[in-house]
Amino acid sequence: MDKSRGGWLNGLIGVFIFSGSLPATRLAVQGFEPLFLTAARASIAGLLALVLLLLFRQQRPAGKQWRGLLVVALGVVLGFPLLSALALREVSAAHSIVFLGLLPLATAAFGVWRGGERPRPAFWRYALLGSLLIAGFALSQGLSASLRGDGLMLAAILVCGLGYAEGAKLSRSLGGWQVICWALLLALPLMLGLAFLQRPPTLAQVQAPAWLGLAYVSLFSMLIGFVFWYRGLAQGGIAAVGQLQLLQPLMGLGLAAWLLHEPVSPGMLLVTGAVLFCVAGARRAAQAEASPRR
């Protein structure tokens, strides 16, 4: 069980880092346009990834691996950052964080498709319950308030789940940090060009919070978090460790309240507390599935 525990620990660290992504993005879009922000964060992280790959002299991926890296790049380097940044122009960080409760279910589904995993029915019951709790709460808060914003968040979740599952699959052969670095490098020419074309006419009016938000999403959300996350998914299983994402709303809501002074209702806390039960149940189901194999 050492490898499994390591997977859950790495996954938890990754989730903790990612929990600051939406609040940081919310800060960043106050000073930068979403398209520029997406390109800038990927460009900064991509340049750092290039340095790491050269420094540690990593062997280039094989032909089939490049196709998987393209899926990762489209999902987590371009798709989720852009779609979530656009959504955060329409909805609050606290509201968007609630939708992240659907991400574990999407990751598990893509893990079955791309990773060849077959979780037990008990696992799916906990995963579905946790996602329904989050989705039900979002509906109770008035989903029609911004159909465009909520639709963008749902699209972001789908492409992110695919990117997570594909990256975890590749991590088994390439390594966790290598996957995100190669994906960032693959997207770097496009992101650099896009950042140049979408650059603001002046940066003099950009306030410090927006710069801090850009720094966080570039260093932590785009690079460091994935080092832990992909390793955790590869070690503990895509579907199983992916359920840790149910904790991300709880962490993110706390950060949104602390940093952005956004209101966090008792209902939000109640729902995010309830998903703790679902995470624990999913972990027990995953352990029960692994035990007979030993």
**Head-to-tail CA distance between termini:** 10 Å
* Mean pLDDT over all positions: 85
Portion of residues in helices? Answer: over 70%
Strand runs, count: 0
The class by helix and strand makeup works out as mainly alpha
What is the number of helical segments per DSSP (H or I, 4+ residues)? 13
The helix/strand series, from N terminus to C terminus, equals HHHHHHHHHHHHH
Give the uncertain stretches in residue-range form. none
Count of individual domains:
1
CA radius of gyration is 18 Å
Strand content: under 5%
Inertia-based shape: globular
Describe the sheet with the most strands: none
At a glance:
The protein has 294 residues and is an all-alpha fold.
Descriptive labels:
mainly alpha
Description:
By secondary structure, the protein is mainly alpha-helical. It is 79% helix and 0% strand. The chain has one domain. The chain has helices at 2-18, 21-28, 34-55, 63-87, 93-99, 103-115, 121-140, 147-174, 176-197, 208-236, 238-242, 248-259, 266-290. The chain starts with a helix and ends with a helix. The mean pLDDT is 85. Residues 8-130, 148-279 form the EamA domain.
List the helices and strands and how they pair.
Layout: H1 2-18, H2 21-28, H3 34-55, H4 63-87, H5 93-99, H6 103-115, H7 121-140, H8 147-174, H9 176-197, H10 208-236, H11 238-242, H12 248-259, H13 266-290
Helix pairs in contact: 1-10, 2-5, 2-10, 3-4, 3-9, 3-10, 4-8, 4-9, 5-12, 6-7, 6-8, 7-13, 8-9, 8-10, 9-10
